[in-house]
Each structure stands twice: as structure tokens, then as C-alpha cells.
Design a protein that fits this description.
Structural class: alpha+beta
Number of strands: 6
Helix content: 55-70%
Low-confidence stretches: 1-12, 177-184
Order of helices and strands: HEEHEEEHHEHHHHHHHHHHHHHHH
Shape: elongated
Distance between the termini: 66 Å
Radius of gyration: 29 Å
Strand content: 5-15%
């Protein structure tokens, strides 16, 4: 069998001792479950198997070659398991189930352990037919394939989950408690909720779509300078992206860096701020979701504060908060009273202070923000006047039309016809 990668080089006897210990642990797992466990190097090269004559994969004579789809599937599953990090269940190209777990006992990737393949379903005959059909494109040694497939035990989804827990326990029993192990345990705890959501979506047969809504909500809160809500929305966006990317930390970081870089481009002052560049690099170097959020929050606050100064550069923190609230929530039923209540001040005091600091009343400022947004909707979308009205925060088309004509000199309908 042609391997794609070189063997790893172990630097001391301690490495070899750990490898021997995990081999003993997974051999015990195989002895109890009669499920083969294969050990791959950190680069993805097959090294050994606890049950070398009971693995269906060995029936493929060119197993391991770069051209096989199963090789790409295997490497992809390894990357996902490393980024989660926890046991990752995946279906191989033959239609069988495998459980992949990274072995990182001291912060260094020693390799990957894969339990399986095993069969999951209700009818073994159908599973065997699928295996035969899915492997027809490969060079198959049927003297190996037939006995190994007929020795497969059929598992229910619940039993597969139990096997996953048992397999994880066998591997983690080898790992001693250390600082780096605590980091890995922290990553596991941080992302267990993400894994739970993914499994639930799979059970519900739901497609995971990119979180456009949470991305837009985050962007709106940043560009509106609303520092009070943007941190919470950032945490929600990071979690949603992690779910969308299947727990892949590297892809999640790329998504977040891309979004924040795009927002930076709209702020000439902040894009030349070297502290922001440093924070982007910190996000890129993060090893856990917690680290991403910590670095990201600092950058988010910098961008939101900069945006707030564009709307109001006075010294009143109350008016700064009120203006930020208007820009982030103008599509909602915002009122002077609700804003005063949110800021824990008297509404009459807020009204007087707002006029004093901005030169206009609270409602006129709110209407101005809403009207500017409605004009963008009418210019760049196929929305009707009524739809633009409602999406901009106005509750009355007649009032919206009156305010629009007062500000721009024409009605919304006339404006839309010109575009």
C-alpha cells in the first residue's frame, strides 16, 4: 500500500511510551467491542490497526492513494475532529460509520485514532448491497471484503453514540492531567454545545445555512456604534459560524476575520490603527472559541466606539448611548420613553438634553435615520413603498410619505419611479 506521508519522528522515549499506552487502551476497546481501531500519524498516514485482519478498508488494494475519494474524506474528517476537538462520527465512502478522535496528550498532535468501520441501520442486507455498490469503482480484493463485511455487527444510532463515549473514555484514560490537557478540556467544554446543536440538526434533518441574520445584526450594531449590544451579538455570531462550519476552528476564524476586515475598510481612521491589526492577528492565532471571542470583543469595541463618534462627538455619555440605540434599533418601535427607560433617565430630561446636544429633537433624529435607510431600500431593492416603510421602522405609510416628502421634496413613490 502506497502511503502519502512520512512517518513521524518521536523525540524521546516518553513519546513512545504514550503511543504504547494508547495502543494497549484501544486494543482493550477492540477486544471488548470487536471493532478495529486504526492509528494514523498527525499527517494522516496509516501506522497500525488493533485488528489488522478485520478491517473492511483493507479490501481496497490501493487504499491510501491520493486519488481515492475515501482518502480525501478521511483527511477532512481528521481535520474536523481536531478542530472540534472531540470524537467525530463520519460516514465513509462505503456507507459505513467511523469514529475519529485526535490524540493530543500534551498539546502536541500525536496522531488520529479511528474506530471502525461499523454498520448502522436496520437491515444488514441493504447495508452490504450499499457497500458493494459504493466500492465498485475501487480495486477490491473480494477474498478480504466478503468475510470482513459479513462479520460486521449492526448497530442502532443510540448504540453508536454509546460506542463513541466508550471509545473516548479508552483514549482519554491515557492522557494525564497537565496544563495543555486542561486547554483541550476547555476546548471540549466550549464546543460541546455546538456539537449538540449539530447532532440535533442532523436528527431533525435540517440543513445548516450560513448565519446571515446574526452577521447582519452584528454589523448593524457595530456601524451604529451600539457598544452595549454588539458584544452579545458577536458571541452569538461566533457560535453560529462554528455550527455552520461543523466545528472547524480554522474556517470559523477565516469567516470572522473576513467580516471584521470588511467593516474596517469602511472606517478610514480605524483601518490605520495598528492595535486593530494586532487584534486581527490575535484572532488568527486563537486556539479556542473563547480566545477568538476575547480578542474579537476588543476589536468590536474599538470599531463601535469609532462609529459612535461619527454620529455624535459630544461629551454626554447619555446622548452617545441614545444615538447608538437609535442607529441600531430604528427598525423597531423606538420611542423617547422606551429609550429613557433603557438608559434609566427621565424622559423629559432626555428630550431636553438631546435637543441641546444634537440641535434637533429625539423624534426628528429618529425619523432622519429611518428616512435615510428607506431611501437606500427604494434605491437598491425591488421593495414596494409599503415594504420600505415597514422595514424602516415606520408604522404608517401616510406618515412615512409625509416625512419623506418633507425631507427630500418628493414622495417615496415618485422617488422610486426615478430610479
Amino acid at each position: 500500500m502506497n502511503h502519502l506521508y512520512e512517518l513521524p519522528v518521536f523525540k524521546n522515549n516518553q513519546n513512545l511510551k504514550i503511543i504504547m499506552e494508547v495502543e494497549n487502551a484501544v486494543t482493550a476497546f477492540s477486544g471488548i467491542t470487536h471493532i478495529p481501531v486504526s492509528y494514523f500519524s498527525g499527517a494522516g498516514k496509516f501506522l497500525w490497526c488493533s485488528m489488522p485482519h478485520d478491517r473492511v478498508c483493507d479490501a481496497t488494494t490501493d487504499y491510501g492513494s491520493d486519488s481515492l475519494p475515501c482518502t480525501r474524506n478521511l483527511i477532512s474528517s481528521m481535520n474536523i475532529s481536531l478542530s472540534i476537538p472531540e470524537p467525530y462520527m463520519f460516514m465513509c465512502n462505503a456507507g459505513l460509520i467511523n469514529i475519529c478522535m485526535p490524540f493530543v496528550p500534551d498539546g502536541q498532535l500525536y496522531g488520529f485514532l479511528i474506530a471502525g468501520p461499523v454498520a448502522m441501520g436496520n437491515e444488514m442486507d441493504k447495508i452490504l448491497q450499499n457497500v458493494s455498490r459504493n466500492t465498485a469503482q475501487y480495486n477490491i480484493d473480494y477474498s478480504v471484503l466478503l468475510p470482513t463485511t459479513h462479520n460486521l455487527k449492526l448497530y442502532s444510532p443510540k448504540e453508536i453514540t454509546y460506542l463513541k463515549i466508550l471509545f473516548q473514555g479508552a483514549v482519554t484514560s491515557v492522557i494525564s492531567e497537565s496544563d495543555s490537557d486542561s486547554r483541550i478540556n476547555q476546548n471540549f467544554q466550549e464546543q460541546s454545545e455546538i456539537s449538540r446543536k449539530l447532532l440535533q440538526m442532523k436528527r431533525d434533518q435540517l440543513d445548516v445555512e450560513y448565519p446571515h441574520s446574526s452577521e447582519q445584526a452584528l454589523t448593524d450594531s457595530i456601524v451604529s456604534g451600539n457598544t452595549g449590544i454588539c458584544l452579545k451579538r458577536f458571541s452569538k455570531y461566533v457560535e453560529d459560524v462554528m455550527v455552520f462550519e461543523g466545528g472547524n476552528l480554522a474556517l470559523t476564524k477565516l469567516r470572522i476575520i473576513g467580516l471584521l476586515s470588511h467593516i474596517l475598510k469602511t472606517d478610514l481612521k480605524e483601518q490605520n490603527n495598528y492595535d486593530n491589526m494586532y487584534l486581527l492577528e490575535k484572532i488568527n492565532e486563537s486556539q479556542s472559541m473563547k480566545e477568538i471571542v476575547l480578542s474579537g470583543k476588543s476589536l468590536i469595541m474599538s470599531l463601535a466606539r469609532s462609529a459612535a463618534e461619527c454620529f455624535y462627538d459630544g461629551s454626554s455619555e447619555i446622548i452617545k448611548a441614545a444615538v447608538s440605540h437609535i442607529h441600531s434599533s430604528f427598525r423597531d418601535p423606538v420611542t423617547l420613553n422606551s429609550t429613557a427607560e433603557l438608559l434609566h433617565v427621565n424622559s423629559a430630561y432626555l428630550s431636553a438634553l438631546f435637543k441641546q446636544e444634537t440641535g434637533c429633537t429625539f423624534i426628528s433624529y429618529l425619523n432622519s435615520v429611518r428616512l435615510e435607510y428607506s431611501r437606500k431600500l427604494l434605491s437598491n431593492s425591488s421593495m414596494t413603498v409599503t415594504e420600505a416603510c415597514m422595514n424602516s421602522g415606520f408604522s404608517s405609510v401616510s406618515y412615512f410619505t409625509k416625512q419623506f416628502k418633507s425631507k427630500y421634496g418628493i414622495t417615496p413613490k415618485e422617488f422610486k419611479k426615478r430610479k
